[in-house]
Write a structure and sequence with these properties.
The complex is a heterodimer of chains A (101) and B (837). Chain A has 101 residues and is an all-alpha fold. Chain A has one domain: Helix Hairpins (Orthogonal Bundle), CATH 1.10.287. Chain A is built from three helices and no strands. In chain A, helix 2 packs antiparallel against helix 3. Chain B contains 36 helices and seven strands. Chain B is mostly helical and 837 residues long. Chain B folds into three domains: 460 residues, no CATH class; 77 residues, no CATH class; 102 residues. In chain B, helix 21 packs across helix 32. Chain B starts with 16 loop residues before the first strand and ends with a helix. The chains are: A mainly alpha (101), B mainly alpha (837). The interface between A and B is medium-sized, with 13 and 11 residues.
Chain lengths: 101, 837
């Protein structure tokens, strides 16, 4: 029997993978992909709680909203990555440290 | 007093005639002084010296002309209305007291003004010649005019304030003129000495004034059992309510009026005189009866005022400045230190006769000091060799005679001696100036002699003045001196310590007659030493002339001798031509010597024979030349003054001769309300006294003639050797200067040094100690400030900076680092959440 904790574990794993990806990837596109993972981890949580705890469609609407947001965020993020590339001729996020100190 | 001309004093208020031109008399010399002080320097450079003396002399002459006009107006008035007043403006108003800048002329001040402007003008003219080679010509005339201005304020001032201004002003002018050649430290010192010694006198004068007004304050404010006795005086309360007077008219309206006399605070001579002479005011009684610590107030006031006169008029013991004042140019000595300024004290006593007459003791002291001064300084005059010093001591002595006159109450006689002295002493001083100039700035009589043939005009005028001062009836001096001495002999009212001392008058007479013998002796001594015998001046050049055959010729034929000396004159003239600016006669567009052109022609053949001598003479320049007569500007003044010395005798023909009051006594009578009783003396006695006076003069003349005529007598040298000790003491002026130096100057300088040391040690020490404490506290405070306060501030700053320095490393610019931060933060929040719950 698959219960809420299972879903929560999957969501947490997705979140953690995403977070580790964001924290460790040097490639800006990889970082964006890690962000997608985090958002999807959150989506899993929304849906699971909607199914086992909530009533109605609140969680599903929220996850749809997050998906839309993720698409927009990916678009903006890729545009930023392009701008970084044009500036630094690389997409390594460690190179873009002009704002240090 | 002789019954034939008993004076009836009208003891009422003085009638006043207001006029509006009196201010011109002092203003003209002031304008002259200012003109030459401001523009003289430049004008002298551009236009020459003429413009300087023209301005100065014109100012004086105009002033004299105005004075004469005033004199004519005074003459036209009835005797007891002879009082002209010219009020310019109000100087100050304080309660009921008003002080105006006002001038007044009564017969006494009229006499003084005529002397000052008249003789002053003559001396200005004389100075043209005397000061001709002086570079600071403009400065001299500016000072001289300034002096005349101040002197006129002194005598014309209508109140004590204006008089005191003049009194100090003449002191200033005297200082400036004594120290005229200020580059010579001796002369600068003489100027300072005169000024400082006068300060002693001025202190007494002003203390006397304060005491007088303090005393009058008692008379002016009604008191119980005294003060105002008028029926219509206003009570003090009412007066106090009106004290807020703001104008002279208001203040005048406040004073109660008693028999036409305003009784109230005043500094005005006339008002004070009225208050004293009108007995109903009670002022006289108050002054005469008040005592201070058991001493009569009138006596104290009189003596203190006389101390002022002592300083200004060079009486014992303050006479020491006057002989030193001879350091000034000779015209200055004549004008200031003989004719005018030094008589200011006499004038003051005569002006305040109504005050001095209140105290027989004050009068006694005045007369006694005058007599002692007369004999003391006459004795010093015996042995002086400097011709100006002789005249200086003679002046001191004659001033003593004047004080005998005003002291015993013969105010008119003292004033008359002032007048006659002004003429003959100015003549003597200017004569000595002419001699000094003629002898090329030689003042030592031992180096003169035989000047009679070189300087005939100077010689005769000097002789005339000698006759006048010695007291022969031919000239004016006899009349004034004899009147003074006779009045002294017949005065019995004098006191010394508040008690009558009837022997004082005769005693003063005997001292005075001894001084008169001395006067005659030293004056003729100076005459014989200067004008008779052989010329002793010059260098080897002249000594050679005196031993070469020419001197034998000179002894036989004076005409020839004159040629020889004329030759010298020519040589001298050549010597001068070499250094033309050295002799000022060139400035005057006239030959420096009357005989010079003659000498060029007549002595030309002899010139070659004397060539070596002449070269010698030329190399000596003006110091080796023959004495010469002075230019006409100087000799004419001498003649005028000598004539004046003769003519003024008619002002004082004794009553004994004409059975009428002498002109001057009659003239001065309204100005002298003080009534002094003299003992009646038989006419025979008076004749005898006049005889004694002439005899005294003759004794002095004969003694001087025997000892000093022609410089041949050996007696003076033998006497000097015989009485070496006494001679030394007298020659050194009784060591008075040394005594003063030891008693006054050195203690006061020692005291000054002590005070300076006290100042430097104790006061400066205390100040420095206070400063050191302050500095220490300041340093301590600064240390606290810089350590703690600044430390705290800096600590905050450095902590902030260190924190910033540490924290800035967190901002790496890498996105992932921030993410770690965010993760850490979230983790911490979660953990914290667990911990709290």
């Amino acid at each position: 029997m698959i219960s809420l904790p299972h879903f929560l574990v999957v969501g947490a794993l997705l979140f953690t993978f995403g977070l580790v990806t964001v924290a460790t990837r040097r490639n800006a596109v990889g970082v964006l992909m890690g962000v997608e993972l985090i958002l999807n981890g959150a989506n899993v949580n929304f849906l699971a709680f909607d199914r086992y705890v909530g009533d109605g469609l609140t969680g599903q609407v929220f996850s749809l909203f997050v998906i839309v947001l993720a698409a927009a965020e990916a678009a903006v993020g890729l545009a930023i990555v392009l701008a970084i590339f044009q500036t630094f001729r690389t997409i390594d996020v460690r190179a873009a440290d002009l704002m240090r100190e | 007093m002789e019954p034939t001309h008993a004076i009836e004093h009208v003891l009422g208020p003085q009638a006043v005639h207001a006029v509006s031109y009196l201010w011109l008399i002092p203003a003209l010399p002031l304008v002259g002084a200012a003109w030459n002080a401001i523009l003289g320097w430049k004008l002298q450079q551009v236009l020459g010296k003429k413009i300087v003396h023209r301005v100065a002399v014109t100012a004086m002459a105009l002033s004299f002309a105005v004075a004469v006009y005033a004199f004519v107006q005074l003459l036209g008035l009835p005797a007891h209305e002879r009082f002209l007043q010219d009020t310019l403006w109000n100087l100050l108003t304080a309660g009921r007291l008003t002080v105006d800048l006002a001038f007044a002329l009564d017969p006494l001040s009229m006499m003084m003004v005529l002397i000052i402007t008249g003789i002053g003008t003559l001396i200005h003219v004389f100075s043209i010649g005397y000061m001709a080679d002086e570079p600071a010509y403009w400065r001299f005339f500016s000072y001289l005019n300034l002096f005349v201005f101040a002197m006129l304020l002194l005598v014309m001032g209508d109140n004590f304030a204006v008089m005191f201004f003049g009194w100090e002003g003449v002191g200033l002018a005297s200082y400036l003129l004594i120290a005229f050649w200020y580059t010579d430290p001796e002369k600068a010192k003489a100027g300072m000495k005169a000024f400082v010694v006068n300060r002693f006198g001025d202190f007494g004068f002003i203390a006397g004034l304060f005491l007088l007004f303090w005393a009058l304050g008692g008379a002016w404010s009604p008191r119980e059992g005294g003060g105002l006795r008028s029926t219509d005086y206003r009570p003090a309360a009412e007066l106090n309510a009106l004290v807020g007077a703001t104008s002279a008219a208001d203040a005048a309206a406040l004073a109660p009026v008693v028999e036409g006399v305003k009784v109230g605070p005043t500094m005005n001579f006339r008002e004070l005189r009225d208050q004293v002479v009108v007995e109903a005011t009670g002022v006289k009684e108050h002054l005469a009866t008040t005592t201070v610590w058991g001493v009569s107030l009138a006596m104290l006031v009189g003596i203190l005022l006389f101390v002022g006169a002592m300083g200004k008029s060079a009486q014992l013991p303050l006479y020491v400045w006057l002989p030193d004042a001879m350091a000034g140019p000779t015209p200055v000595s004549a004008l200031i230190h003989a004719a005018t300024m030094v008589t200011a004290g006499v004038y003051m006593v005569a002006r305040l006769n109504f005050l001095f007459a209140l105290s027989a003791s004050a009068m006694g002291w005045v007369a006694l000091v005058g007599a002692l001064t007369a004999i003391f300084s006459a004795s010093i005059g015996f042995f002086q060799y400097d011709i100006k010093k002789v005249l200086a001591y003679s002046t001191v002595s004659q001033l003593g005679f004047m004080f005998i006159g005003v002291g015993v109450g013969a105010y008119w006689a003292g004033s008359y001696h002032l007048l006659t002295h002004a003429f003959f002493k100015a003549c003597l001083f200017l004569g000595s100036g002419s001699v000094i100039l003629g002898c090329h700035h030689e003042q030592d009589m031992r180096k003169m002699g035989g000047l009679a043939k070189h300087m005939p005009i100077t010689r005769w005028t000097y002789l005339a003045a000698c006759v006048a001062i010695a007291g022969f009836p031919l000239m004016n001096g006899f009349y004034s001196k004899d009147e003074i001495l006779f009045k002294a002999f017949t005065s019995r009212h004098l006191g010394l310590f508040g008690t009558p001392t009837p022997w004082l008058g005769p005693a003063i007479y005997f001292v005075g007659i001894a001084a008169a013998i001395g006067t005659s002796f030293y004056m003729f001594r100076s005459y014989y030493m200067t004008f008779t015998g052989e010329y002793r001046g010059g260098s080897g050049h002249h000594d050679e002339h005196n031993v070469d055959p020419h001197s034998a010729l000179a002894a036989r034929a004076s005409a020839h001798s004159h040629d020889v000396h004329a030759d010298d004159g020519a040589a001298h003239a050549f010597g001068l031509a070499g250094n033309a600016p050295s002799h000022g006669a060139h400035e005057l567009d006239e030959p420096p010597h009357a005989s010079a052109p003659h000498a060029h022609g007549a002595a030309a053949p002899a010139h070659a024979a004397h060539a070596p001598h002449d070269d010698h003479g030329a190399s000596h320049g003006q110091h080796g030349g023959t004495p010469h007569e002075s230019p006409w500007t100087m000799t004419s003044v001498l003649v005028v003054l000598a004539a004046g010395s003769f003519l003024t005798l008619f002002l004082g023909i004794p009553t004994l001769w004409t059975h009428a009051a002498p002109l001057l006594e009659h003239w001065l009578e309204p100005a002298i309300p003080a009534e002094v009783a003299f003992e009646q003396a038989p006419h025979a006695l008076e004749w005898a006294f006049q005889g004694i006076g002439v005899l005294a003069a003759a004794i002095g003349l004969l003694a001087a003639r025997a000892l000093y005529k022609d410089g041949r007598s050996e007696v003076p040298a033998r006497l000097k050797a015989r009485f070496e000790g006494i001679w030394t003491v007298v020659y050194n002026k009784y060591y008075v200067d040394e005594i003063y130096d030891a008693l006054v100057v050195r203690p006061s300088t020692a005291f000054a040094r002590l005070a300076s040391r006290f100042d430097g040690g104790v006061i400066d020490g205390a100040v420095n100690f206070a400063g050191a404490i302050g500095r220490f506290l300041g340093r301590f405070d600064a240390w606290i400030d810089s350590t703690f306060v600044d430390g705290a501030v800096n600590l905050v700053a450095s902590l902030t900076s260190a924190a910033g320095g540490g924290l800035r490393r967190l901002q790496t610019g890498r996105v992932q680092t921030y993410l770690y931060g965010a993760l850490g933060g979230a983790l911490a929040v979660v953990l914290l959440n667990f911990l709290i719950s």
